[in-house]
Write a structure and sequence with these properties.
Elements: H1 9-14, H2 26-40, H3 47-54, H4 58-62, H5 68-80, H6 93-110, H7 125-137, H8 145-176, H9 180-196, H10 201-209, H11 216-235
Helix pairs in contact: 2-3, 2-5, 5-7, 6-8, 8-11
Length: 239
C-alpha cells in the first residue's frame, strides 16, 4: 500500500497558529524567492540561493518551507494576490470576465515564470479568492456549476495561451538578439523563394495583406472579444 501523501502546505500553515513575528518565516522566504525568479527565472530559484540572499543557512529555510514544491506553491499563490479584483462581480459577466482576462495577462507579464504553474488547482488563500470571484462573475446566468466553469475557463485559457505566445516571442528575442522585425528580415529571402514556387496561397496572402506588426493590445482585445462573442452565443445569455 502506497504511503499517504503529506498534507498540503496550506493545511500545515493553517495549523501553525499565528505566534510572534519572526525575521525568517514562509512569507519572507516566498518574497525572496519571487524576487529571484523575477530577476533570473524560475530555474534560478533554489534554497541555497534564497538562503544566501537572506543571510541564513538552507537548513533554516527548510524548517519553514518543507520542499521546493511547497515553495513554488507559495510563490504562485503570493503573486495571485496582486490581481486587482475590487468591484468584481459588477453585474456584467462579460465586462467582469474581460477584466479578469486582462488582469491575468498583466500578471504573466509582471512575473513571466508563472506560466509554468496554475495547471493543477491550488488551494492557497489568493487562489481561493480568485476562484470565488471568477465564478461569482458568471453566476445568475441560469448555468450549472460545470457550465459556469466552462465559460470562465474558456476565456482564461485563451488568455494564458495568448500570453504564453507573447512570452515565447520575448524569450526568442532575448535568445537570438533579433526583434520580430529583425526576424522578418532574416527569413525574408527564404519566404520570397517559397512564394515564387506558387504553392502556398495563404502564406502569400499573409505576407501581402496581413498587418506585419500588429499592436499586441489591440490583437488581444480583438481575439478575446471573439471568444466572448462565441461564449455568448453558445450559452444564449445576455452580454
Amino acid at each position: 500500500m502506497a504511503d499517504e501523501p503529506p498534507p498540503v502546505i496550506w493545511a500545515r500553515l493553517s495549523s501553525q497558529g499565528r505566534g510572534p513575528v519572526r525575521t525568517l518565516d514562509h512569507v519572507a522566504i516566498t518574497t525572496a524567492a519571487i524576487a529571484l525568479a523575477d530577476e533570473d527565472g524560475i530555474g534560478a530559484v533554489s534554497m541555497r540561493k534564497i538562503a544566501g540572499r537572506m543571510d541564513h543557512s538552507p537548513m533554516a529555510l527548510y524548517r519553514h518551507v518543507g520542499s521546493k514544491d511547497d515553495l513554488t506553491e507559495l510563490m504562485y499563490d503570493a503573486v495571485l494576490g496582486e490581481l486587482e479584483l475590487t468591484g468584481i462581480p459588477s453585474g456584467s459577466w462579460r465586462a467582469d470576465v474581460t477584466r479578469l482576462a486582462r488582469e491575468i495577462r498583466r500578471l504573466h507579464h509582471a512575473h513571466p515564470w508563472i506560466a509554468r504553474f496554475g495547471h493543477r488547482p491550488t488551494l492557497g488563500p489568493n487562489a481561493r479568492r480568485f476562484l470565488e470571484a471568477g465564478l461569482a462573475c458568471v453566476d445568475g446566468l441560469g448555468l450549472d456549476i460545470d457550465a459556469m466553469m466552462d465559460l470562465l475557463a474558456t476565456a482564461l485559457q485563451f488568455t494564458r495561451g495568448f500570453v504564453e505566445q507573447e512570452l515565447g516571442e520575448a524569450e526568442a528575442q532575448r535568445r537570438t538578439g533579433l526583434d520580430f522585425a529583425g526576424y522578418q528580415r532574416q527569413t525574408g529571402p527564404f519566404i520570397s523563394q517559397l512564394l515564387q514556387e506558387g504553392e502556398l496561397p495563404y502564406l502569400r496572402r499573409l505576407i501581402i495583406e496581413a498587418d506585419d506588426l500588429p499592436d499586441p493590445e489591440a490583437l488581444f482585445e480583438r481575439r478575446l472579444a471573439m471568444v466572448l462573442d462565441g461564449l455568448t452565443a453558445r450559452i444564449g445569455c445576455p452580454s
